[in-house]
């Protein structure tokens, strides 16, 4: 028989406001096995914990029930308390009488009655608790960063700086991501390339960092500290280690009309290409969909001009298997397609562009060498209309837009408008806005400068229709403050398209068993207190894959993710969670149901020899759980038809005892 | 194949061409339009108020007639199509409304929006297919630059009409291509002509209609085609200086059935 | 108009929830009849939300809306202002003697070409 102590917490007035805590302590005193029961204002405080420790010694307690907040808050605290008093930490049970009781009930009698029932259930469970000891697993001291934009680069640099090895996997031929496409960055207006490319070089030269460009992650197995990852290196038909990046092949390639992704299709590249001058790695890549040699064996010019002999038309995709202790997701974002918003005539006129296209049009390395010229006729635009929130804050239909605010558009639009007025004072610039959202250091000041110093005309309202006619774009818009409908004959219209997570994020999340929200942004372990960790142990989040964010925020999050990775990799061993599933081999009928439902791949089947009642031996197929991989979710226990699967700490018998106590 | 056909009142009077060419073309394409018997006017506009029942009954009767013949229902006039389709949608999704209607009509079996409705354009695209249509063309309309005018009724509300992308439609352009002509894309093709506002503000109808014609002409159009008699009326009355014709007329011409051989 | 249930009635029959409006103004930016209206689509939404309905009922704006549904189609929040305009108009013309269009008005509208559809629609919109 257990000797159980019950400790009822007031949580100030959080619990005591709706639950008569003294009555709860009193009622639980008479439960079988309870030898001590008390209440206290803050059980998690030092004094509260001392109260528990003293009671364990004075009353010789073997089990503890704390009636308090959710176990997610303080279960770990009270387990430590129990351990300090010499008890096995898994002899502690929490009855959640705050989130599941006092916070949801308004009347004291009801709250008190429910708290007593929850307390009784916990007492019933503790009777069946057994001491548990967590296992240990080693840690592979290498990290994987998926995505080579500013988020991935910063995370990798910070991890490498602490002395750990890092691999970056980037699906494009070069690292750099979206930031490499930007012209200037708000609110300081430093040039994006000037601050990004040194970091790209750092990462390329860092001995601790390997870059797998033009590559993707295809399989992830294992668990925190011990991930087994398969990386597919796509054939680029150029030997990366030999190519010098001289560009002779690019100059000679006769396929000149391949839309250039880096400039968002506003100019063309060759079939063999280096995305931009500062690309890392600076090696050429052959586009197999455009290259004549690869398509029909006719050409081969690039191989002829390559003095290094780097061209290899027979190159195949290569699969690399590597072990990692931690994985950082940094898959970033993309602007949404404007196909669903043709009231703005994006598909009808070349002079209706997105903000990212505008960045390329103003970038010295862009298709117009930095001169702001209309894509249709190469003329200088004199009247420019910026439209904010295109597809953001859109709840009308899911196919169309995104319900969230894309966060970065107000600031980059202010930047675009200001820079346009600065460089081309003869242009009239209009910005249509719903709200101007500038919560960041020096952000609102920046926006106000655009209005007050640069004369950008901010209009509260929205554009409803754009009609291309002749060489003008007839913009029909509302001006809500003047209560007027405006008709502006514009030369260029720039749409601030909503941003969405990269399409590769969803399949990656499945591989990582990391959770996502309905918008395909990765979910953090706790929105406030664990913002850079995924709920899946060993998986960390960096940058816009977790939610829209600008560069300063991305870089801080990247550093934070790196510090979490470093904290993990600095450990030699990891303590596991002992609350894992186990199979009673004598009862297992080998049906494989558990193996199929296990989301973590923790269950395998083995052929084992068993002695039968007639003393013969038989070989049977039985389930075996790898305790290091099992996350204790319990799917297998409810699936098992023969009742062979059980979960330590949450055994079927314990759950039934709780249910019985509640229904009594 | 045989389908139920609802021409509507305007097609029996001022827009006889729209109806006549639709019938002849359908025959040429192997589809028989069986006109619903004793039909009443669709109502002209769909009243969006959910408590409005009586004005929607004639549309429900049209739908029910097609259901009884176990045929899909085909419409040609944009307004009829909009009213009938929106009414059907209300019968499918608004339980309270459908119950009221069914109790009022007191038919043996209640109607809950089962009938499939095709606009004639959808019949061409989804049932016959533009590729098959192309093969039946005997007089390809080569070199003609034609602007499709959708107006509002065919496309909106898009969640109910489900004909095409409401801001960048292609169904009439695809038809124009199938007939051998060249479609002209212009932004005002889905803007309203003014509709029945001519009763209240002829100036507004003129302004809207002119904006459509001017935009189509600026894009190089030599002709405008439409499915709506009221659109055509507004465009022509307000001074369109290029021909505005029904899409069925163009179809009949390409199929070689424009001249009535029976007469 | 002393109907205390008027606002509730308008929301019920239109099925519109003006609380969903985020005041972006895209409805009024899309409206082809804007310049002929005293109260514009976004104002219908905010005035009905605030219970300020009487000025709308007295306004000629009710008869300028084309029900072309551009506002409803383009609204990022799915508010459908056109349905609200129609609800207010119905609240007026459903009253005894409040028909906007009367049979004796018709001859003045007629010409050789006018389609039946125009008259039927106008009657549906302007008379009960």
Descriptors:
heterotrimer; A: 664 residues; alpha/beta; Rossmann fold; FAD/NAD(P)-binding domain; 5 domains; 5-stranded parallel β-sheet; 19 helices; 25% strand; globular; B: 263 residues; Glutathione S-transferase Yfyf (Class Pi), Chain A, domain 2; 2 domains; 4-stranded parallel β-sheet; 12 helices
The helix content of chain A, as a percent range, equals 25-40%
Rounded radius of gyration of chain B (Å): 18 Å
Major sheet of chain A: order of its strands?
A: 10-7-6-18-29
CATH architecture annotation of the largest domain in chain B: 3-Layer(aba) Sandwich
Biggest sheet of chain B, in brief? 4 strands, parallel
Overall, the morphology of chain A is: globular
In the predicted model, the low-confidence regions of chain B spanning at least 5 consecutive residues are none
Regarding CATH, which class of the largest domain in chain B?
A: Alpha Beta
Overall pLDDT confidence of chain B: 95
Could you say what the CATH architecture of the largest domain in chain A is? 3-Layer(bba) Sandwich
Q: What share of residues of chain B is helical?
A: 40-55%
Count the strands of chain B?
Answer: 8
What's the CATH superfamily of the largest domain in chain A, by name?
Answer: FAD/NAD(P)-binding domain
Calculate the mean pLDDT score of chain A and round it. 96
Strand content of chain B: 5-15%
Shape of chain B: globular
């Amino acid at each position: 028989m257990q000797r159980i102590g019950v400790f009822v917490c007031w949580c100030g007035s959080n619990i005591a406001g709706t639950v008569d805590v003294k009555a709860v302590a009193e009622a639980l005193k008479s439960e079988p096995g309870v030898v001590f029961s008390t209440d206290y204002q803050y059980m998690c405080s030092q004094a509260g914990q001392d109260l528990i420790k003293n009671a364990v010694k004075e009353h010789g307690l073997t089990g503890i029930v704390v009636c308090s907040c959710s176990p997610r808050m303080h279960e770990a605290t009270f387990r430590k308390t129990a351990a300090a008093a010499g008890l096995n930490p898994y002899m502690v049970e929490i009855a959640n009488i705050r989130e599941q009781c006092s916070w949801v009930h308004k009347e004291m009698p009801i709250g008190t009655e429910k708290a007593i029932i929850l307390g009784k259930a916990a007492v019933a469970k503790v009777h069946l608790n057994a001491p548990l000891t967590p296992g240990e697993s080693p840690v592979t001291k290498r990290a994987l960063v998926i995505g080579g934009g500013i988020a991935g680069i910063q995370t990798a640099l910070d991890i490498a700086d602490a002395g750990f090895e890092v691999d970056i996997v980037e699906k494009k031929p070069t690292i750099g991501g979206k930031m490499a496409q930007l012209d200037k960055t708000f609110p300081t207006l430093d040039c994006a390339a000037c601050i990004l490319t040194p970091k790209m070089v750092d990462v390329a030269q860092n001995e601790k960092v390997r870059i797998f460009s033009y590559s993707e992650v295809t399989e992830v197995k294992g668990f925190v500290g011990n991930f087994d990852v398969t990386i597919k290196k796509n054939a680029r038909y150029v030997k990366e280690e030999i190519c010098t990046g001289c560009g002779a092949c690019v100059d000679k390639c006769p396929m000149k009309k391949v839309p250039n992704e880096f400039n968002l299709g506003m100019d063309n590249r060759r079939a063999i290409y280096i995305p931009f001058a500062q690309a890392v790695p600076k090696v050429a890549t052959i586009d197999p969909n455009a290259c004549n040699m690869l398509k029909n064996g006719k050409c081969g010019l690039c191989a002829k001009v390559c003095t290094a002999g780097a061209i290899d038309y027979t190159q195949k995709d290569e699969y690399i298997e590597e072990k990692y202790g931690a994985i950082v997701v940094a898959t970033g974002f993309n602007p949404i397609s404007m196909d669903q918003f043709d009231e703005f005539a994006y598909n009808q006129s070349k002079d209706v562009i997105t903000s990212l296209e505008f960045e390329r049009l103003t970038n010295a390395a862009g298709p117009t060498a930095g001169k702001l010229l209309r894509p249709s006729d190469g003329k200088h635009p004199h009247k420019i209309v910026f439209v904010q929130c295109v597809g953001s804050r859109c709840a009308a239909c899911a196919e169309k837009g995104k319900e969230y605010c894309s966060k970065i558009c107000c600031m980059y639009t202010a930047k675009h408008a200001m820079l346009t007025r600065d460089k081309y004072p003869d242009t009239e610039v209009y910005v249509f806005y719903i709200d101007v959202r500038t919560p960041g250091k020096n952000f609102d000041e920046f926006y106000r400068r655009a209005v007050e110093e640069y004369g950008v005309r901010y209009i509260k309202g929205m554009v409803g229709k754009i009609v291309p006619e002749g060489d003008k774009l007839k913009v029909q818009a509302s001006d809500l403050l003047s209560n007027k409908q405006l008709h502006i004959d514009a030369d260029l219209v720039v749409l601030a398209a909503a941003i969405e997570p990269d399409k590769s994020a969803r399949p990656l999340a499945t591989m990582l068993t990391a959770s996502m929200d309905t918008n395909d942004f990765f979910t953090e372990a706790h929105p406030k207190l664990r913002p850079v960790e995924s709920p899946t142990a060993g998986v960390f989040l960096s940058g816009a894959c977790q939610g829209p964010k600008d560069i300063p925020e991305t870089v801080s999050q990247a550093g934070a993710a790196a510090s979490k990775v470093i904290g993990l990799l600095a450990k030699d061993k990891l303590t596991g969670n002992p609350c894992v599933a186990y199979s009673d081999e004598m009862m297992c009928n080998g049906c494989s149901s558990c193996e199929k439902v296990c989301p973590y791949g923790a269950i395998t089947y083995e052929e084992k020899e068993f002695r039968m009642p007639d003393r013969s031996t038989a070989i049977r197929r039985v389930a075996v759980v790898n305790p290091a991989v099992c996350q204790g979710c319990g799917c297998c226990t409810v699936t098992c038809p023969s009742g062979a699967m059980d979960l330590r700490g949450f055994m079927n018998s314990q759950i039934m005892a709780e249910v019985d106590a509640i229904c009594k | 194949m045989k389908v139920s056909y609802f021409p509507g009142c305007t097609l029996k009077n001022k827009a006889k061409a729209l109806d006549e060419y639709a019938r002849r073309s359908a025959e040429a394409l192997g589809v028989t339009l069986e006109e619903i018997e004793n039909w009443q006017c669709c109502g002209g506009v769909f009243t969006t108020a959910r408590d409005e029942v009586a004005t929607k009954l004639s549309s429900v009767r049209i739908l029910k007639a097609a259901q009884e013949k176990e045929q899909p229902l085909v419409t040609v006039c944009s307004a009829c199509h909009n009213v009938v389709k929106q009414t059907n949608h209300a019968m499918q999704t608004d339980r309270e409304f459908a119950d009221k209607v069914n109790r009022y009509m007191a038919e043996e079996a209640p109607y809950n929006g089962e009938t499939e409705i095709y606009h004639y354009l959808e019949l061409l695209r989804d049932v016959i297919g533009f590729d098959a249509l192309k093969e039946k063309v005997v007089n390809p309309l080569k070199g003609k630059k034609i602007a499709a005018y959708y107006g509002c009724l065919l496309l909106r509300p898009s969640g109910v009409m489900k004909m095409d992308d409401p801001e960048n439609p292609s169904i009439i352009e695809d038809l124009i291509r199938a007939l051998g002509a060249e479609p002209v894309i212009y932004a005002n093709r889905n803007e309203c002509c003014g509709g029945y506002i001519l009763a209240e503000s002829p100036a507004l109808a003129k302004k809207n209609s002119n904006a459509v014609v001017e935009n189509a002409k600026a894009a190089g159009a030599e002709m405008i085609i439409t499915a709506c008699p009221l659109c055509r009326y507004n465009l022509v009355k307000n001074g369109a200086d290029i021909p505005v014709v029904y899409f069925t007329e163009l179809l009949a011409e390409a199929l070689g059935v424009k001249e009535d051989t029976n007469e | 108009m002393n109907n205390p249930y008027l606002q509730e009635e308008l929301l019920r029959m239109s099925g519109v929830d003006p609380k969903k409006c985020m005041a972006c103004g895209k409805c009024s930016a899309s409206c082809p009849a804007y310049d002929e209206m005293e109260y514009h689509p976004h104002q219908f939404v905010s005035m009905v939300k605030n219970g300020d309905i009487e000025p709308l009922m007295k306004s000629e704006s009710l008869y300028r809306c084309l029900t072309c549904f551009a506002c409803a189609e383009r609204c990022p929040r799915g508010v459908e202002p056109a349905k609200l305009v129609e609800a207010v108009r119905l609240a007026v013309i459903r009253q005894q003697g409040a028909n906007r269009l009367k049979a004796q008005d018709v001859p003045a509208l007629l010409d050789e070409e006018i389609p039946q559809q125009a008259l039927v629609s106008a009657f549906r919109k302007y008379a009960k």
